[in-house]
Amino acid sequence: MNVVVVESPAKAKTINKYLGGDYQVLASYGHVRDLPSKDGSVRPDEDFAMSWAVDTRSQKRVKEIADAVKGSDRLILATDPDREGEAISWHLLEVLKNKKALKDVAVDRVVFNAITKTAVLDAMKNPRQIDMELVEAYLARRALDYLVGFTLSPVLWRKLPGARSAGRVQSVALRLICEREFEIEKFVAEEYWTLKAQASAGGSEPFEARLTHLDGGKLDKFGLPDEASATDAKQKIEAASFRIGAVEAKPTKRNPPPPFTTSTLQQDASNRLGYAAKRTMQIAQKLYEDGLITYMRTDGIDMAGEAIAQSRDAVKSKFGDKYLPKSPRKYTSKAKNAQEAHEAIRPTDFNRSPEDVRLDADAAKLYRLIWNRATASQMEAATIERTSIDLVSGDEKITLRANGSVILFDGFLKLYASADKDEDTRLPKVTEGDDAETKEVEAEQHFTQPPPRFTEASLVKTLEELGIGRPSTYASIISVLQDRDYVRLEKRRFVPDDKGRIVTAFLENFFRRYVEYDFTADLEEKLDKVSAGDLDWKALLDAFWKEFSASVDDIGDLRIGQVLDALDEALGPHFFQQTEEGKDPRLCPKCGEGRLSLKLSRYGAFIGCSNYPECKYTRPLSAEEGDDAAGGDVELGADPETGAAIWLKTGRFGPYVEREAQEEGAKPDRSSLPKTWPPDTIDLEKALRLLKLPREVGEHPEDGDMITAALGRYGPYVKHKSIYANLDSIEEVFEVGLNRAVALIAEKKAKRGGQVLKELGEHPDGGGPVNVMEGRYGPYVKHKKTNATLPKDVEPGDVTMEQAVTLLAEKASKGGKKKAAKKKPAAKKTAAKKKPAAKKASGGSKAAASD
Predict the structure, then answer these.
(1) Confidence of residue 38 (pLDDT cuts 50, 70, 90)
(2) Does the structure show a pLDDT above 60 at 52?
(3) Is residue 421 included in any domain, yes or no?
(4) Cα 382 to the center of its chain, rounded Å
(5) Taking Cα atoms as reference points, which of 778, 793, 799 lies closest to residue 714?
(6) pTM: predicted TM-score of the whole model, two decimal places
(7) Catalytic residue among 192, 275, 288, 295
(8) Whose CB has fewer CB within 10 Å in the chain, the N or C terminal residue?
(9) In which domain, by residue range, is 429 found?
(10) Is residue 356's pLDDT more than 70?
């Protein structure tokens, strides 16, 4: 029996159809082990030793594979044909060796670029061994990412509260987005004017011509800087007589683009289909596993000989001989850092046209895009005639020019037109020297535009051009930036959030070398040398770590005040923009004396007044200067019962309403605004309703305890004892009756016991998620096997990651001491009696941990 291991069950299912009964195809479900998310998983002081662990989910898969291998003659590792695929095979082999499951079992590695019967069977006939140079390139990359993340992120947490993480490539991509935003903010628009006229000659159809020369000189972009100069030029055109000057017609050829690489597929799918990079790769993965396209992680742009022949046959049968070039087209990669080379992304069978394949709508669109691009790459060039006509005034001081193009032969454009559409702008036939007429002269005002924000496509293109990261990682990099709330998408363009800008400013000020484009690209080149066998991977890590760890040590004693000063200076132009002539944008709008500056709290950054605590003015970073809800306090009116003033204010956690305290030193009543109630919609009536919360709904019929309705940080709810049940809308908080509340509580109670009330995300030290849970004795926070009860005055919906980590650490500390005190005497006694057995067990534990 031969056991074949691939990554996914879909891939296993497809390959299983091609192999006979002598083969058992199993899936590893990706990597079977990984570096634990905790300090010490990579140890520079021990020659970069790495500790790997098999997670709970993978243990079942590994056991299934190990059991199958023990009864087989041959293990065939058939994971993907790239660095990551090689690493998955290596990991699995190491785990099986540790389990002693490979006795008398032959081990082979096979690769195929497409999941077709021919490709799979050919691979089975040509096995090889694990490529350790690719594995070492993977190990180097994994260690680098770990060391940067687990060394730099804690520095961020200590020096920059509220920051989430930093990464080797992630932080550089974030810098690109933030720098572009600074360029946009500093941009000053310049005014300029252009003139156009409708022209004709010899009875021709009218055509549009634009002013290019005036007063005998060529106009540059700002040649007409204002309306006065444009009006003057317009009058001169209207007063002049014209003739046809030069007429030029230049035929040009446009060759088709090569088939897709990972990067160009992500760019084109974004531009044409509106797919995010992550979505594109998910669909492409499915198409690959179904045997419809070749491997989708590649920098290669050429196709195999048989594929070229097949695509040429498809061109000939679909479009005819005139669309087929005499000889096949060959493409050569110009990638700055080509990763392990494969074919370009193409259909595995060009006879399966998009019309012949049954797929869901999104997959069908992507398959059509891949099929069209690959087929078009073997089509004839398009022939385009570019024409220009000059109209010259009698005194030869004014020239108007018309430009046009005509597609004489569409060639590959018949199948794969440019994303920006080729315009077929025809100009009439005119003869040089003919009299010409101009009319409808128009002056148009323009302003220069700032550089555009990055789209996913343009960001991927820029990263690739700079040699930063690898196309196969771009989708995950973009996802991380969004998941960390460092950037957001607006109209399909990236806008950095303030959190992202602060992290970037921090790294540029204190770790500039590690977010420099050239440094990151150079590191990628060195990693490529490792995969080519030209550089030792541990030598690369050693050189990097010496400098990097020294940089971290240098800022160990850095005070928060120094960090704030640097960030305040770097980000001041963004957060304190000039709005009125002569007015200091940093002047506190509340006290009129203090200076606004960047402040930090355990929850993140905000803007505050230097006169604190006398002046308690604050506003969020994202608030617009001058926004009433963010900057100044707005008095809504007086409470009709007490006469106390009701205010709309904004604090570091957002807008809220406040009722002034009636007694000196008393705490005022406050209530946050629901997310569905914008600050500009709040009036006195709404404010009073909010300030009456929490509202008593009625006594529970079972125990007589009061049910209350309130608004939490994450929405409206009803509460009975320790049970919280969400309400559908904020309006229901003010209207929900006892019967409805009891029903909601009962539904929630039926689901209690381990139900997740709130997901907080990954623990800062790694190792899994932290969640707020519903428990039998009340809500608690959970991380792995540690549970910590919430204090009675803390709402589950209000729990932050920082609070949860503190509670968990306290519980773990108490639990650890208690356990050690109980078992210490027994442990000593056992160790004394069974010393040899303890040694053996210790060795076994160590081996298990190294998995």
Answers:
(1) confident
(2) yes
(3) yes
(4) 37
(5) 799
(6) 0.67
(7) 295
(8) N
(9) 191-255+383-447
(10) yes
pLDDT of residue 423: 55
CATH number, domain of 441, equals 2.70.20.10
- Give CA–CA dist 166/391, Å, rounded: 59
- What is the structure's pLDDT at 269? 93
Answer whether residue 357 is part of any domain.
Answer: yes
Query: Measured between alpha carbons, how far is 554 from 318 in angstroms, rounded to an integer?
Result: 66
* Sheet of 786-789, strands arranged across: 755-762, 769-774, 780-783, 786-789
Measured CA to CA, the distance from residue 797 to residue 802 in angstroms comes to 14
Q: What pLDDT shows up at residue 373?
A: 96
Rg, Å, the chain Cα set: 34
Angle at 146 between CA 145 and CA 151, to 5 degrees: 105
752 touches 779 (CB < 8 A): no
Range 404-420 average pLDDT: 84
Let me know whether 270 and 294 are in one domain.
yes
- Asked whether residue 565 is assigned to any structural domain, the reply reads no
pLDDT digits (tens, 9 = 90+) for 499-529: 888 888 888 888 888 888 888 888 888 888 8
Q: H helices within 3-131, ranges in order?
A: 9-18, 56-70, 83-98, 117-125
- Cβ-based neighbours of 636, under 8 Å, separated by 6 or more: 646, 647, 648, 657, 682, 683, 684, 687
**Contact present, 279 and 272 (Cβ < 8 Å):** no
Name the residue type at position 166: A
Q: Which tokens go with 300?
A: 């290669």
In DSSP terms, 488 is beta-bridged to 495
Q: Which of 273-277, 423-427, 492-496, 626-630 has the lowest mean pLDDT?
A: 626-630
Helix axes 498-510, 170-186, angle to 10 degrees: 110
**155 and 216: one domain?**
no
> Which CATH number do you get for residue 154?
1.10.460.10
Are both 67 and 23 inside the same structural domain?
Answer: yes
Closest CA to 851 of 33, 107, 62: 33
Please provide the DSSP assignment of 426-484 as one string.
------TT-EEEEEEEEEEEEE--PPPPP-HHHHHHHHHHHT-S-HHHHHHHHHHHHHT
- Domain assignment present for residue 614? The answer is no
d(CA 371, CA 293): 9
State how many domains the chain has.
Answer: 5
Same domain, 283 and 230: no
- Please check the confidence at residue 749 and state whether its pLDDT lies above 70: yes
pLDDT at 728: 82
Looking at the structure, tell me whether residues 479 and 405 fall in a common domain.
no
Among 418, 447, 476, identify where a domain stops: 447
Q: What is the pLDDT of residues 722-743, one digit of tens each?
A: 788 888 888 888 988 998 899 8
Q: State which of 447, 473, 496 marks the end of a domain.
A: 447
| Average pLDDT, integer, range 580-597 | 82
Strands 23-27 and 2-6: parallel
The encoded tokens of residue 198 equal 């409708």
Q: Which residue has the higher pLDDT, 631 or 392?
A: 392
Q: Tell me whether residue 603 is one of the annotated catalytic residues.
A: no
Tell me which amino acid residue 513 is: R
Residue 365 and residue 456 share a domain: no
Same domain, 275 and 364: yes
Q: Is the pLDDT of residue 56 over 90?
A: no
| Cα 125 to Cα 11, 79, 108, 342, distances in angstroms | 19, 16, 11, 19
The whole-number pLDDT of residue 76 equals 95
What is the token pair recorded at 251? 């035929």
CA distances 483 to 380, 480, 756, Å, are: 45, 5, 20
pLDDT of 410 over the 80 cut: yes
Q: Tokens 């077929």 identify what position?
A: 424
SS3 content of the chain, % helix, strand, coil (to 5): 40, 25, 35
How far apart are alpha carbons 426 and 412 in whole angstroms? 20
- Is the pLDDT confidence value at 626 over 80? no
Cα–chain-centroid distance for residue 454? 12
Instruction: Give the model confidence (pLDDT) of 69-83 as tens digits.
Output: 988 989 999 998 888
Phi, psi of 253 (to 5 degrees): -115, 140
| CATH assignment at residue 12 | 3.40.50.140
Question: Would you state the structure tokens that stand for residue 4, as one six-digit string?
Answer: 């074949």
